[in-house]
Design brief:
single chain, alpha+beta, Alpha-Beta Plaits, four-stranded antiparallel β-sheet, two-stranded antiparallel ribbon
Length: 166
């Protein structure tokens, strides 16, 4: 029998709705895979650069998203994704994709590329789930945006912190 997993999504909410979503995705077992924080700045390694490239490539696969602030930490990422399903002018309405599909794509694309680079095909890179928060006000957006931008400066206070060997 599989262990019970608590559903952390807002019950009854349609995650393909227009809106802003704050996401956090952790590396499997919270292993430091993406670089180190040195002198209050994140220094990406090759794996971290792959994740960054995959993040910025998402709009090429999903025409209903706009990417906002994003931060890669040694063992997790934070980002804000805006879903917008409105048509502009004569353009057809974009295909509606829920947040879960976009997160799945980011995890799949980055895992595949990192495992290929490292010769570790099939190894899980990301934890199974992810954290999300629906941003419902300008003040909440500002708070979360500031949190993302300042994350490396608060690394030693982060719940995912580990002592790095530099």
């Amino acid at each position: 029998m599989l262990p019970y997993r608590k559903n952390i999504r807002l019950q009854g909410y349609d995650y393909s709705n227009d809106g802003l979503y704050f996401i956090t995705i952790c590396v499997n077992d919270r292993k430091p895979m993406f670089g180190i924080v040195k002198e209050w700045e994140m220094n990406l390694n090759d794996n971290g650069k792959i994740v960054l490239d995959c993040w910025y490539d998402l709009p090429n696969h999903y025409d209903n998203i706009v990417l906002h602030d994003f931060c890669i930490m040694p063992n997790h990422i934070h980002g804000i994704i805006q879903l917008s399903n409105e048509r502009a002018g004569l353009k057809p309405a974009p295909t509606t994709h829920p947040l879960s599909e976009i997160v799945r794509a980011l995890k799949t694309f980055s895992s595949r590329k990192i495992n290929e680079k490292n010769g570790t095909q099939g190894c899980p890179l990301w934890q199974r789930n992810y954290y999300e928060h629906i941003i419902r006000s300008d003040s909440m957006y500002t708070t979360i945006s500031d949190y993302i931008k300042e994350n490396p400066k608060r690394w030693i206070y982060d719940q995912f912190y580990f002592k790095e060997n530099t």
